[in-house]
Design goal:
- This protein has 10 helices and 11 strands.
- It has 2 domains: 3-114, Nucleic acid-binding proteins (OB fold (Dihydrolipoamide Acetyltransferase, E2P)), CATH 2.40.50.140; 122-305, Hypothetical protein af1432 (Orthogonal Bundle).
- The radius of gyration is 23 Å and the shape is elongated.
- Helix 2 (122-134) packs antiparallel against helix 3 (139-149).
- Helix content is 40%, strand content 21%.
- It is α+β, with helices and mostly antiparallel strands.
- The strands form 3 sheets. Strands 1-3-4-6-5 form a 5-stranded mixed β-barrel.
- The protein starts with 17 loop residues before the first strand and ends with a strand.
- Mean pLDDT is 92; it is low at 1-5.
Length: 325
């Protein structure tokens, strides 16, 4: 297998496709019985998404359990099987009797770029972000931003972090890219609405997703941390923000509340995960810039990665057609 030259991407698979490619293991479920023997399912991932794989073994339960037990989260495996549809979802069926294969690969046997997308120009993006951070004039907020974005350990983690697992900017450097887009959108709107508090908007846009640094892990795939799932990046971000504010003498209480509000309200609605909804125009702007960039990036990515001669592609996650021409 010659790396990306032979890599079949999950996002391009269709029902009926024969699969012979490599993926990372996200998780596995226990072995169970079925009509013809023993089976188990596991989740596989690559740079375009995730998909369920099902291994259909024979009567030798010990053999199936041995294969099952050999798989660990983060392993890279070659899979030979066929794409099928079950309950309106695509999955990879790997049949032992039909030559299905699940085998471990060593580091040199695959190209990591097929599993993890890494954005170009990360250093340039870091430099641009610092320009925005240093443009904030309010002294306490300026010190706050410096404590995050001029702290080497935090900035290294922030720059390597994705913005999501599958929805938008799902890549190494994705959080940096998304944050810059949100800031730049906000700057353009401030030109139209000069009565907005520029320092507050810029700081809120820069800080809105800081909780994602503790919410994701990056290895052979992107995954949530337990804290990311159980607590959530908005709450983690508020915790990080409040902790840094406490280290700055004389930080105005009203200003601290406004910044925390922007972080906690940036999903816009309680049903979308925000414990509070935007109650200030600056918070509303950060929310809409965040939402717009995420949705645009998702649709553009689906369009760019579509593999079809048709003029349209069906997006299963959003249940809509996307026009490709």
């Amino acid at each position: 297998m010659d790396g990306m030259a032979d890599k079949q991407l999950i996002g391009a698979l269709a029902a009926g496709d024969r699969v012979d490619s490599y993926f990372s293991v996200a998780y596995r479920k226990p072995v169970s019985e079925y009509r013809y023997g023993h089976m188990f399912e596991f989740r596989v991932a690559d740079r375009t998404g995730q998909m369920t794989a099902k291994y259909w073994g024979g009567d030798d339960r010990a053999r199936v359990e041995s294969l099952h037990d050999s798989l660990s989260k983060g392993d890279v495996v070659r899979i030979v099987g066929e794409v099928s549809e079950f309950k309106s979802q695509l999955e990879i069926s790997i049949s032992e009797k039909n030559g299905g294969v699940v085998e471990h690969l060593s580091d040199g046997d695959y190209d990591i770029s097929g599993l993890l997308k890494t954005l170009d120009g990360i250093q340039e993006m870091k430099d641009r972000l610092l320009v925005f951070a240093r443009s904030v004039e309010e002294p306490h907020v300026s010190m706050l931003l410096k404590s995050f974005f001029e702290h080497d350990e935090f900035m290294e983690a922030f720059s390597a972090c994705p913005a999501s697992i599958q929805l938008h900017s799902a890549a190494v450097g994705g959080l940096l890219h998304h944050t810059l887009n949100v800031v730049e959108m906000c700057v353009k709107v401030i030109q139209l609405q000069p009565n907005l508090d520029r320092d507050l908007v810029i700081a809120g846009a820069l800080l809105h997703d800081i909780g994602k640094v503790r919410s994701f892990t990056v290895g052979t795939s992107i995954n949530h941390t337990p804290e990311g799932n159980l607590v959530g990046h908005l709450t983690i971000g508020d915790e990080e923000l409040a902790a840094r504010i406490r280290t700055i003498d004389g930080f105005p209480e009203d200003l601290a509340m406004k910044l925390r509000h922007i972080v906690l309200a940036h999903h816009g609605k309680k049903e979308w995960g925000s414990p509070v909804e935007p109650m200030m125009p600056e918070a509303l702007l950060v929310h809409h810039a965040d939402d717009l960039d995420a949705k645009l990036n998702y649709m553009v990515t689906r369009r760019d990665e579509a593999v079809t001669e048709d003029d349209w592609t069906w997006d299963r996650r959003r249940s809509r057609l996307i026009y490709l021409r």
